[in-house]
Fold these 4 entries.
Entry 1:
Amino acid sequence: MAAQVEQLAFVLHRRPYRETSLLVTFFTEQHGKQNAIIKGVRSASKSAQAKQAWLQPFQGVQIRWREKALVAQDLIALYHFEPASMRFPLMGESNLCGLYLNELLYRVLYPSIESNELFQAYQQSLYDLAIASSRNAQAWALRQFEYALLTELGVALDLSQDYYDSPISAEKRYLFHLELGLFPEPFTQTTEGVIVSGHCLQQFADQQYCEACLKEWKTLFRYCLAPFLGKQPIQARALFQAGI
């Protein structure tokens, strides 16, 4: 007998499917990324239009589906959805930043992997973007989410000590290698990676905002995410002339 599942979810991506349906990718707390075909929501009826309006980015949705035991499913059998009270009204550039988060999750997460902590980090990032009053505040929110995502993906980002188990020094520069970790100057072990100051590593490890470190943090996390994203460019990032 199929088990019934109910989850708070957010829409990561949607596209037309056949004449009147949508193929929607959701991000849920306990079941991770899930795909569903939602029928009849692209018709001209008022009911269909209202339901389609619920399927917007950053609008929480309560979804229900039937999950068959021991059967791998690429598509969940969604039978009910309705808007939840959780909603993040992102405007302007904050909206673009939110779409960037959605694109990351859509592209790098495997389906049906439980990700409670990442789901909480996602909601916190949307809240931070909603109240952000500057590009720097937006960038800080993005970097924190990227770190949470990399942790979920299994990337070992220990920013408190180097390859030799020595504490990070604020006065030194370090080369970060994705598989080996942090090497202090002089870089004799490897030349592959990105260079980050010890000060900026300490600031992020302590979750201390530092405007002077924003550029180095962005370079570090882009380097870490690149193997997961491949060569296809981030569409949301292209909407910013200066990058996000």
Entry 2:
Amino acid sequence: MPLLRRADLQSDCASCFGLCCVALPFARSADFAADKPAGKPCGNLQADFRCGIHAGLRERGYPGCTVFDCFGAGQKVSQVTFGGTDWRSAPGTSEAMFAVFPVMRQLHELLWYVTEALGLAEARPVHRDLRRASGRIEEITRGAAEEILAVDVNALRGEVNELLLRASELVRGRLPGRRRNHRGADLIGARLAGADLRGASLRGALLVAADLKGADLRSADLIGADLRDADLTGADLTDALFVTQAQLNAARGDASTVLPAGLARPGHW
């Protein structure tokens, strides 16, 4: 089975049955203008499975939708798992389809990280194991609904995380000097403007509303870091590891923010 590319793990809403707008719940808050339980279509979902207010989600009170990324899980569930049969024309599929979607999203997120790690030359010592993991996960994603639902995602995530951590250490280990370890740290609102965080471990760190203006985040490991409302104005994220589009969409920045290759500058910046 050929290895996946990043392009294979990007959302294609035109090939999806609006699953993120139906399967997932959200609560009225600063992120969502209304409550919606899991399994109920959002009131803005149109008959063609498109969002009726997509162009103005932030202005209409739905910024939470703009930071969500399914990593291509929506089209995989819609077109592969259920063979192009949508939940409206075949209501009997809805329960299984909505249950599979969040599991598929987690699997595709893992594939996103593994695919990135396979592109890191310094991580070559773990490439063979990463290729095996990629093939195994991809095989799972192409299985039947009941097979996907039977997967222990937490156990699989733990196995893959060990490989990703090793890849991260190999990349960051080539950098000179002492590298900061802020793994899982509570850095909410932290004043880190201009900080030298090159090669730092920020895995799972809480950086909500942190001031990272002008910070050096080159080759920093940001897997799972919470960047909601973090100020990345002028920050340098060149070669930052395991950054997702959703993380950038949740943060603040501007034209001077240097992004990792392959990721887009959010429209609201």
Entry 3:
Amino acid sequence: MSSRADPAARLRDLALLRRVRDRMDREYAQPLNVEALARGVNMSAGHLSREFRAAYGESPYAYLMTRRVERAMALLRRGDLSVTEVCFAVGCASLGTFSTRFTELIGVPPSVYRQRAAGATAGIPSCVAKQVTRPIRS
């Protein structure tokens, strides 16, 4: 970021990072990459990646994939879409990459999650189910 010694500059830089994070939260289903996100806040991709990791503890890509998996979990619990349909609905372009990242984060492949979760959250309000089933990256 600009200067670690200048608190005002640090606050401005953190605000830019928050804008990037908010954009990923809003546009998770869109084709996003670090270069496009960095251009949006006038940073280089490498600089954005380093500073995002320093501020949030994970890379922009990891954050975006966590958001996509989180949304995918909700769609899979509904049970009316196939794993492939969910993959594309959350913005992933590759079923293989989606399944790999989902399995890394959740511990089971999306198809197994779908089977297990279909009845597990029945009767629970969606806002509570979202909190209880939120993926946690270690």
Entry 4:
Amino acid sequence: MLPPSRTPGAASEDSAVRSTDSDALLSRVSATRQGYLDDPFCLLFLTPSQRRSTERRPPLINIGTHARTWAVDELVEQFLRSGEVNSKERPLQVLSLGAGTDTRYWRMRKRWSERKGEESWPVRKWVEVDFAEATSIKARTIATKSELRDQLGGDVKIEQGGLGLSSPLYAILPGDLRDVPSLSLSLFLSQGGAPPHLDPSLPTLLLLECVLVYLTPEKTNDLLKFFTSTFKEGCVVAYDPFGLDDSFGEVMKRNLAMRGLSLPGSRSTPTLDSLSRRLESNGFLGSGNSLSIKQIRESIIPRDDLERVNKIEQIDEVEELNLVLDHYAISWSHVSGASSDSLRIGLQSR
């Protein structure tokens, strides 16, 4: 939730940031309808007007959405598989910040159930945090759609005056990522006799998809240090733009400014390596790396899947595609270099 001291101009920019989730949702829907992704759950979050729209995203957007989604999914699945070697007394946790309408919880549950059965789900709790305006809509959608509600492990409760939701396996919390003390309180405070949402002693994955670029470098550092100082074992997976001080970046920033958006975090990530250094400087000292989406398409995504995707739509703007994909990256790392080998995640060349 926004601090009371936020100015009207800042509140307006927060609204613009929230609107980017609608863009991401429509991109996932477009990629799903065209066959790039298998995400039936994203359709459930469409508004009636969005559902009636026949707009299709261009191939460049669909291809980028596929590559980004594939890479993050692969790292999340690696983290989930690490839970198989842990005893039942040490399940996993996921903390997804700025999650918006993300459907990864349901997609991962579906894949896991199809391969191993629902009872083997290794995640104690999957927690999402976002602006209250976003969490209230998502909580209401989940509570009213059985396809979503039935995968939450039991009793589902709308909480915090309709702004949040909790269940045995999943929770949505309203919060402002710039206010780390309040975020910490909501994650670890026991309410009504129920256990806290997260346990700092358990292996935990931090998900940050296109989040940090909207925070100042100082607020980003606070957020990352909070995680590394709180959780004894854990990983981070982030998706970010970088290198936006060139002509491409200047055009991008001007276009976003017309929508009331700024990218305060971009000044701290001028290069691909700077993404990894940012994690290291804030306590992620285990093995990690950063790869551009262009590199991921060229050398990481399995050839059969890449060939499948390349046949869906004809793309003529190959240079433009590569230019865009070379300004976005996936980064990952670990809380401690002393973490057990079973908790290693990473993207490997095919």
